């Protein structure tokens, strides 16, 4: 049964020339899972907001959104709030109240549901979403993943008919993201909830989706079965289709397009031989002295707290990109902050360019030496425009390795996640660092910005600097890192060359490595897999 | 009877306000001693070891108040000694002592109250009166720690980018100002998204219910009735002069033959919270020892 009918929807932001959404029409059946994709600025967010009346931005709207046959503009406020649930990108900013139970009750309080009914609905929702353990806690004590789950639950407690999610996992680590997607999937299957979700990373969402909507410049470029979308747009870098589909498209596959690791493996093993099992490696010459060296470092936040860093040994060499990976609470960010001199260790030694970190005084550490960008890059900005921001740091916009002219006069907070990362990076590069420390630089970035970031890091390494990145993004690490370190419990559990690292890991690794495990060796990126497929050639008789 | 901690927040609030209000209005030795002891006992039971600093603070307060009052007040007939040509009287020392004890008792009871009344309980009480302001406070309570964390992160980032040097006073004041302005922009930005999220979940200017997981039981009514009636009786009869105590010029017990009954009543409501707390603890021990 048809639940949503979007008819010739167009939207023009007030004060803009070009339509953000242009003549988009599609219908969604009840219980369908729709994935929406497209690069930054393709109008995804705008389109999603148009589906929720309360969130419609200021501007000129044409066309209509019909929910169950009725135009949502004609709904009463209570009905409109109830029937479409909307979860936004940032987990933190959507939360209104200070206690978990109060946040869950918030929507129902607004709808003036009687207290007894609220009690029941809040209780059953908390159980379904696994929030009963944290029910009485303060919201501030929750992790990002828990916060986003709470946001989902506090929308679902109102029992919406359609759930709209705008990049809900972009700010989460991969494990929390999988958990979140799994919960959405469960609601879709068990409660036949209609879901419309937009994500940069389609690796996990697309295999679950019934249909996909691909947006290009505000227009619907495709709407139909998800697998078909993967086949049609896999070759398009900007669409970020799953790795299996990309390999399929680049190796000229024919037939049904694989969308996940299992199908990808079938495709590769059935179509290509494995006479050549691994790629030749280019050896990079390593500098004699590490730029950054941790020897036996211990750190804890409070006297009685457990050690956040537990005898950490770490070396980062100039000219190399070192990626630090690991789960939440493994000490990744703490290690980075310690290297930037923001945390004082209580035992062990940190050497920066061969000298003990304590010998750098009066900010000498931050002059042509170390620079760090935190996860929350917004904290790098104190001015009203990007131009002033860059001037403060003493860098000329025209000398930057990337183009910022489009948003020079904008307020830094108005930039997209990717643009913000670039401006912050420009500020860090202005100190001409020999060691650049980055914390989760790819969070919330689409593939276009990731490419720019990779290029900048490569150029920096080629000029002899050491880049140390803390990241959850295994695909990024596999494509960009020279060395990878796995932190576990505050110490380094593994440290090796990126290809070996991901080739050797069975769980903590890229989709491509999972896809080719046991068939090829150390093929960790789509490039590797494609090169190996090409080297081996198609099996005789394969389709 | 259930402990005040597990009662309806209204009951906890009313009981403690009644006890402290009576102590503040009727500052008689016969009232203050049970108030102080009852408060200290109740607080200790709730706070355990973590209450050590409060005990020290209260003891200091009583001592300092007893020492300071005679310096400013020279009323009273019993001169203890003369200091700088000024008499130091026993009455003034006692008044200081009593003032100190009143303050200490209030600190103990309110210390206990803050341990019992977590922010959500306080909001529940507000919410019954005005759901709107309760929501506002809940939002504010959530926002304050966020703001603090953000400000720390900004300073760290600026340091790591080499833009925030610890230098002379002027430059650090300038830095703080910049951080403050960034914080305000962030708060506004954040506020807009939160407002969107509120609107998306049906928040409007209309009426709303207020939900809180605190049922009101018969036991809560008993607590409230006992305490409001007792406080009313004690305050009224104190005002009528049925019982009482004067300090100046000489310390004299005033009032009639039934004074002792009033003091006993007050002592009872002072010790009741601690007693119930003890009873519950004993019940636990008993239950555990049986299994």
Describe this structure in words.
The complex is a heterodimer of chains A (543) and B (291). Chain A folds into three domains: 2-241, Rossmann fold (3-Layer(aba) Sandwich), CATH 3.40.50.300; 244-271 and 511-543, no CATH class; 292-509, Rossmann fold (3-Layer(aba) Sandwich), CATH 3.40.50. The mean pLDDT of chain A is 91. In chain A, 53% of the residues are buried. Chain A has 18 helices and 20 strands. Chain A is an alpha/beta fold and 543 residues long. In chain A, the strands form four sheets. Chain A has a six-stranded mixed beta sheet with strand order 6-7-8-3-9-10, with helices on both faces. In chain A, strands 16-17-18-13-19-20 form a six-stranded mixed beta sheet, sandwiched between helices. A four-stranded antiparallel beta sheet of chain A has the order 2-1-4-5, with helices on one face. Chain A is 32% helix and 22% strand. The two termini of chain A are 38 Å apart. Chain B is mainly α and 291 residues long. Chain B has a domain at 4-123 and 214-290. A two-stranded antiparallel ribbon of chain B has the order 1-2. A two-stranded antiparallel sheet of chain B has the order 3-4. In chain B, a hairpin with a 5-residue loop joins strand 3 and strand 4. Chain B is extended. Chains A and B meet through helix 2, helix 3, helix 4, helix 5 and strand 16 of A and helix 5, helix 6 and helix 7 of B.
User: Structural class of the helices, strands and pairings of chain B?
Assistant: mainly alpha
What is the CATH third-level topology name of the largest domain in chain A? Rossmann fold
Poorly predicted regions of chain A are: none
H-E string of chain B: HHHEEHHHHHEEH
Give the CATH level 1 class of the largest domain in chain A. Alpha Beta
Summarize the amount of helix of chain B as a percent range: over 70%
DSSP E strands of chain B, number: 4
* Radius of gyration over C-alpha positions of chain A, nearest whole angstrom: 25 Å
Helicity range of the residues of chain A?
Answer: 25-40%
Strand arrangement within the widest β-sheet of chain A reads 6-7-8-3-9-10
Q: If interface size is counted as residues with C-beta under 8 Å from the partner's C-beta, which chains form the largest one?
A: A-B, 69 and 51 residues
User: Beta-sheet strand percentage of chain B?
Assistant: 5-15%
Uncertain segments of chain B = none
CATH architecture call of the largest domain in chain A: 3-Layer(aba) Sandwich
Strand content of chain A: 15-25%
């Amino acid at each position: 049964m048809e639940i949503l009918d979007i008819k010739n929807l167009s939207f023009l932001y007030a004060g803009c020339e070009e339509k953000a959404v242009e003549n988009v029409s599609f219908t969604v059946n009840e219980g369908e899972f729709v994935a929406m994709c497209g690069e930054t600025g393709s109008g995804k967010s705008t389109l999603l907001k148009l589906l929720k009346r309360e969130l419609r931005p200021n501007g000129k709207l044409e066309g209509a959104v019909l929910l169950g046959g009725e135009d949502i503009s004609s709904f009463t406020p209570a009905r409109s709030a109830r029937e479409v649930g909307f979860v936004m990108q940032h987990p933190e900013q959507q939360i209104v109240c200070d206690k978990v139970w109060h946040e869950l009750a918030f929507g129902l309080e607004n709808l003036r549901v009687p207290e007894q009914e609220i009690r029941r609905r809040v209780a059953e929702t908390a159980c379904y979403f696994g929030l009963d353990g944290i029910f009485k806690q303060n919201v501030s004590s929750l992790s990002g993943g828990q916060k986003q789950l709470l946001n989902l639950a506090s929308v679902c407690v109102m029992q919406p008919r359609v759930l709209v999610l705008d990049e809900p996992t972009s700010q989460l680590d991969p494990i929390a993201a999988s958990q979140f997607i799994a919960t959405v999937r469960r609601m879709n299957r068990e409660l036949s909830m209609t879901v419309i979700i937009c994500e940069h990373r389609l690796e996990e969402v697309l295999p679950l989706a019934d249909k996909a909507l691909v947006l290009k410049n505000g227009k619907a470029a495709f709407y139909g079965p998800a697998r078909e979308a993967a086949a049609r747009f896999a070759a398009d870098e900007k669409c970020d289709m799953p790795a299996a589909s990309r390999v399929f498209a680049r190796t000229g596959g024919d037939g049904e397009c694989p969308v996940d690791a299992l199908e990808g493996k079938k495709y590769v093993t059935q179509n290509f031989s494995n006479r050549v099992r691994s790629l030749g490696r280019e050896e990079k010459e390593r500098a004699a002295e590490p730029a950054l060296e941790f020897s036996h470092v211990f750190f804890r936040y409070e006297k009685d707290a457990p050690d956040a860093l537990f005898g950490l040994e770490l070396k980062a060499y100039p000219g190399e990109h070192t990626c630090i990976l690991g789960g939440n609470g493994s000490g990744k960010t703490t290690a980075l902050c310690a290297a930037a001199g923001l945390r004082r260790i209580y035992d062990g030694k940190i050497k920066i360019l061969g000298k003990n970190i304590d010998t750098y005084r009066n900010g000498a550490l931050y002059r042509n030496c170390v620079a760090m960008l935190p996860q929350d890059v917004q904290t790098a900005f104190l001015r009203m425009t990007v131009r002033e921001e860059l001037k403060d740091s003493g860098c000329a916009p025209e000398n930057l390795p990337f183009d910022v002219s489009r948003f020079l006069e904008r307020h830094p907070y108005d930039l997209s996640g990717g643009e913000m990362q670039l401006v912050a990076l420009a500020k860090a590069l202005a100190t001409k660092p020999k060691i650049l420390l980055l914390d989760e630089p790819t969070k919330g970035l689409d593939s276009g910005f990731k490419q720019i970031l990779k290029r900048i890091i490569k150029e920096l390494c080629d000029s002899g600097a050491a880049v140390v990145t803390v990241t959850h993004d295994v695909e990024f690490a596999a494509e960009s890192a020279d060395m990878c370190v796995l932190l576990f419990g505050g110490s380094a559990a593994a440290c090796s060359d990126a290809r070996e690292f991901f080739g050797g890991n069975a769980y903590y690794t890229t989709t491509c490595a999972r896809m080719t495990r046991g068939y090829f060796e150390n093929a960790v990126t789509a490039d590797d897999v494609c090169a190996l497929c090409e080297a081996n050639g198609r099996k005789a008789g394969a389709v | 009877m259930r402990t005040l901690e597990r009662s309806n927040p209204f009951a906890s609030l009313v009981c403690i306000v009644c006890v402290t209000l009576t102590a503040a209005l009727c500052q008689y030795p016969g009232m203050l001693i049970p108030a102080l002891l009852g408060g200290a006992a109740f607080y200790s039971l709730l706070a355990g070891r973590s209450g050590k600093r409060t005990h020290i603070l209260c003891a200091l307060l009583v001592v300092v108040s007893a020492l300071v009052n005679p310096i400013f007040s020279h009323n009273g007939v019993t001169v203890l000694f003369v200091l700088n040509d000024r008499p130091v009287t026993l009455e003034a020392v006692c008044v200081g002592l009593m003032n100190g004890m009143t303050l200490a008792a209030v600190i103990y009871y309110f210390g206990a109250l803050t341990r019992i009344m977590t922010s959500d309980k306080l909001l529940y009480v507000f919410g019954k009166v005005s759901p709107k302001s309760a929501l506002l406070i809940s939002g504010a309570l959530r926002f304050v720690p966020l703001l603090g964390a953000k400000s720390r992160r900004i300073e760290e980032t600026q340091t790591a980018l080499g833009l925030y040097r610890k230098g002379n006073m002027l430059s650090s004041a300038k830095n703080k100002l910049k951080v403050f302005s960034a914080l305000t922009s962030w708060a506004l930005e954040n506020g807009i998204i939160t407002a969107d999220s509120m609107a998306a979940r049906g928040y409007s200017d209309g009426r709303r219910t207020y939900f809180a997981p605190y049922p009101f039981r018969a036991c809560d009514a008993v607590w409230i009735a006992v305490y409001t009636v007792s406080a009313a009786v004690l305050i009224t009869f104190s005002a009528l002069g049925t019982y009482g105590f004067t300090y100046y010029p000489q310390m004299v017990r005033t009032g009639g033959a039934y004074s002792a009954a009033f003091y006993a009543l007050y002592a009872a409501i002072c010790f009741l919270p601690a007693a119930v707390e003890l009873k519950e603890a004993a019940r636990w021990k008993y239950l555990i020892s049986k299994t």
